[in-house]
Design goal:
- The chain is an alpha/beta fold.
- The protein is 56% helix and 14% strand.
- The protein is built from eight helices and five strands, in the order αααβββααβααβα.
- The chain has helices at residues 3-27, 37-52, 58-90, 136-139, 143-155, 175-187, 189-192, 202-215; strands at 95-100, 115-119, 122-129, 161-166, 195-199.
- It has a five-stranded mixed beta sheet with strand order 1-2-3-4-5, with helices on both faces.
- Strand 2 and strand 3 (122-129) form a beta hairpin.
- The protein starts with a helix and ends with a helix.
Length: 219
């Protein structure tokens, strides 16, 4: 059996097993930090590949360790951002908390988003997302579909408005910014106007949320 054939077999096993594990985990409600089935599959793929290829070179092993450490740091920073955002909504006077947790790109209704809050006559959906390149599998794959799904929930009046908070400023060339612009063209301004985008670091986003909540735009 050729070395290339062995690689093909390993690759096929990795892909099939990754898909089964992802379907099982999501079916059991274990979406965790993974925003979509594809993101979870990719995480399993990385892990299983390392398990099935024990003869990695020292350079490859070091690269895997370095990338894992970078991903862990980025995830911890995102989690701090996520917690600060949902806490800001939860602690605002006059807001009723209906849900706080991790949403998933593959879900519907309240399970689609990270937080659901009622203020006045409005039911607000809150979503936190990372712009980090190293976390793109979790937060960028499936983002366009996610935005369209949020728009559908607004149209169905599941939510009055959705507030999407990014952990860094978006510029026009960012993948997520391009997706937002494209989806806006697809779903129309009337719905998209009810999807509010707030972007920046934790220190700059929190004042923006405070201003939004006291402006009367969501009350």
């Amino acid at each position: 059996m050729t070395e290339k054939r062995i690689e093909d077999i390993i690759s096929g096993r990795v892909g099939a097993l990754s898909q089964r594990l992802a379907e099982t985990a999501l079916g059991a409600g274990g979406s965790g930090r993974f925003r979509s089935k594809e993101a979870l599959e990719e995480e399993f793929r990385k892990t299983i590949t390392q398990e099935l290829e024990p003869e990695l070179s020292a350079a490859d092993k070091e690269r895997f360790r370095r990338e894992a450490a970078q991903e862990e740091r980025a995830l911890k920073e995102y989690q701090k951002f996520h917690q600060a955002v949902v806490n800001e909504f939860a602690n605002h006077p006059g807001i009723k908390v209906e849900k706080i947790g991790d949403g998933s790109f593959d879900e519907k209704g309240d399970d689609l988003v990270d937080g659901v809050f009622t203020i006045g006559q409005n039911r607000l959906a809150v979503i936190t997302l990372s712009t980090s390149d190293i976390l793109k599998d979790q937060f960028q794959n499936g983002f366009a579909k996610f935005l369209r799904d949020v728009a559908k929930e607004i149209k169905k009046e599941t939510f009055t408005k959705a507030i999407v908070c990014f952990d860094d400023e978006l510029v026009a060339d960012d993948r997520q910014a391009k997706i937002i612009a494209k989806v806006k063209e697809q779903i129309g301004a009337d719905i998209m106007n009810n999807i509010m985008i707030i972007a920046g670091s934790k220190d700059t986003v929190i004042p923006k949320i405070q201003k939004l909540l006291t402006s009367g735009l969501v009350a």
